[in-house]
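queue> pop job 88
queue> type: inverse folding (structure -> sequence)
queue> payload:
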């Protein structure tokens, strides 16, 4: 019997890729596994490539052929992977305003494919170094002023364009001071003071 506990933790890996890995690990051909499982070779290939979904029956047949003692492993792993993909897509839908972020700053990525939560540090540093004040304000809106300030403080000496980073940070601080002054003026005006 093959131990599959390591594979159980790999929810980011599709069940078909795990099946392929186990077949290779056992030094067997897909054709022999298909024959032993009473599955058409093309169907097995479709499972490996992710073009077909595992059924309980197919999962059990493959597990018996591969001496896997965990009943329904491929079927359950497929479900875990589906949940992983759903959560990843949900996170991707929560993102900064793409109309503010420029291709000049994010030239090497497709904005809609970035996991903005996992890439927080990278995104803030990228904007600090290559972005403009509007993009930096968007990073503050999306992540928080504290997160942006922490990245600035922690990486202050490691930027490739330190003068540009200092200028954009100074602009941000000046804007913050203006916002504070405006808020005080509005408060005083509402309370009849000058």
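queue> result:
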């Amino acid at each position: 019997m093959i131990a599959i506990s390591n594979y159980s933790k790999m929810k980011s890996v599709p069940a078909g890729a795990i099946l392929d890995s186990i077949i290779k690990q056992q030094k067997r051909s897909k054709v022999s596994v298909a024959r032993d499982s009473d599955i058409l070779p093309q169907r097995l290939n479709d499972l490996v490539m992710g073009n077909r979904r595992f059924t309980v029956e197919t999962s059990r047949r493959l597990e018996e052929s591969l001496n896997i003692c965990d009943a329904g492993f491929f079927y359950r792993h497929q479900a875990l992977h589906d949940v992983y993909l759903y959560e990843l897509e949900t996170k991707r839908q929560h993102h900064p305003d793409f109309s503010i972020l420029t291709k000049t700053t994010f030239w090497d990525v497709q904005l809609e494919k970035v996991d903005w939560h996992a890439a927080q540090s990278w995104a803030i540093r990228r904007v600090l170094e290559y972005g403009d004040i509007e993009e930096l304000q968007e990073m503050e809106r999306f992540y928080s002023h504290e997160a942006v300030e922490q990245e600035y403080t922690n990486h202050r000496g490691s930027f490739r364009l330190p003068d540009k980073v200092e200028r954009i940070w100074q602009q941000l601080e000046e804007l913050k001071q203006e916002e504070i002054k405006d808020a005080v003026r509005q408060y005083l005006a509402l309370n009849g003071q000058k």
